[in-house]
Amino acid sequence: MQSVFARVNRPAVAAGDSGDAGLVVAARDGDELAYARLLERHKEVAFRAAYLVCGSRAEAEDATQEACLKAWLALDRFRAGEPFRPWLVRIAINEARNRRRSAGRRAGLELRLATTRGDARVGASAQADALVGHERERLLAAIAALREEDQLVVAARYFLGLGEAETASALGLRRGTVKSRLSRALERLRRQLDQEGGA
Amino acid sequence: MSADLERQLSALGATLDVPTARDIAATLVLPPRRARGRVRTGRRTLTAVFAAVLLIAGTAFAVPASRHAILRVVGLRGAVIERVTTLAPATQSRLRLGMRIPINSARHAAAFTALLPPHTEAAYIAYDVPDGALSLIVGRLVLTEYRAASTPLFMKLIDPRTRARQLRVQGDPGVYLSGEVREVFIGAGGLRIEPVRLTGNVLLWQHGPLTLRIEGARTLQQALALARELH
């Protein structure tokens, strides 16, 4: 028996190009192809979320795979009309946190700058690039000083590209809580950066 | 200022070190939708164990000692059991479990998501069956997992004195063989009689598409204890 995802490029019959809602309905009825299409759309963001939490590629892959499996098994409990993406991200984050806890590592996101990307702006001087790189390091350090609950809101909004409602769903929070937590986190970041700038 | 900071954060997100995942979905094998009910609570697990014990006590079947009888174990797809009049002499040799792999990669080493116990001494993967066979060393026991194909991949030969008990393992159909057992591998390379792999008994059961086998258990309880720990 081959993995269902080996067949993902077959033309979908029932699912077609329908949105997530249609695919979820089909997947809930046991349509593996529809589920494969859902994962094709959203597995990257789920992996990215897991990686930011546990900081290990292997663990993030495991966490994402477990999340995909758990989501499949729990489709019956998924509320119709809700967006699928933040739900999958939420499961992936929980899986990644469990793995981090099992490994005895401290809470907090594992954020690192890529060494080869990011400063490749055409026409920018080496000095400006170095400055930008330095600012990024400062910003990263300021985020690292936040509490994990604030880090997660920042990460969901700016590093995963989730909207406010999706962030609320992915983190299991009310929308108002996301707003207030994000506002608080931004204020703390701003203060910290100002203090460093003035030092 | 706020908009500036938000722009900086978005830009930062684009420069974070996040590797590209391998194709996670390619090795994900979904259990049938019926398996949804296997999200277990402690109470359910307890009930399943209790039911298994009742089943063992009440319906353990004594297989008729007819010659060369194929035992039908309802629901067990990856192996077949045949009772023969005499078994070939046992030989001792190294276990052929395949290639040793890191334990932390065991869950996804084969083309299915394997069930793992909390503690494992060593893990091996063999690719002489479709989708691979994962073997784990747990104390003195060997746990093997593979995906059942349309035809059984292994045949267990037992002699007339070997007991075969049909039972449920965590609600799944299985059989416990206690006594003399030989294994015949039915693969692309033809039949191959395995040497006696371990002294001990064999628990075989079917969990969704997976066939699982525990060898080397001194008692059924020991084998069931390991089966209960798998997740």
Layout of helices and strands, plus pairs?
The complex is a heterodimer of chains A (199) and B (231).
Chain A: H1 20-28, H2 32-54, H3 57-73, H4 84-102, H5 126-144, H6 148-159, H7 164-171, H8 175-198
Helix pairs in contact in A: 1-2, 2-3, 2-4, 3-4, 4-7, 5-8, 6-7, 6-8, 7-8
Chain B: H1 2-15, H2 42-59, E1 69-71, E2 79-83, E3 99-101, E4 122-126, E5 133-138, E6 141-147, E7 154-158, E8 163-169, E9 172-178, E10 181-187, E11 190-194, E12 201-207, E13 210-217, H3 220-229
Strand order, largest beta sheet of chain B: 3-4-5-6-13-12-9-8
Q: What is the number of E strands of chain B?
A: 13
**How many individual helices of chain B?**
3
Query: If you average the pLDDT of chain A, what whole number results?
Result: 79
Structural overview:
The complex is a heterodimer of chains A (199) and B (231). Chain A is 66% helix and 0% strand. Chain A has 199 residues and is an all-alpha fold. In chain A, helix 2 crosses helix 4 (84-102), helix 4 (84-102) crosses helix 7 and helix 6 packs across helix 7 (164-171). Chain A has helices spanning 20-28, 32-54, 57-73, 84-102, 126-144, 148-159, 164-171, 175-198. Chain B is elongated. By secondary structure, chain B is α+β, with helices and mostly antiparallel strands. In chain B, the strands form two sheets. Chain B has an eight-stranded antiparallel sheet with strand order 3-4-5-6-13-12-9-8. Chain B has a five-stranded mixed sheet with strand order 1-2-7-10-11, with no helix packed on it. Chain B has a domain at 69-229. Chain B has helices at 2-15, 42-59, 220-229; strands spanning 69-71, 79-83, 99-101, 122-126, 133-138, 141-147, 154-158, 163-169, 172-178, 181-187, 190-194, 201-207, 210-217. Classes of the chains: A mainly alpha (199), B alpha+beta (231). The interface between A and B is large, with 57 and 44 residues.
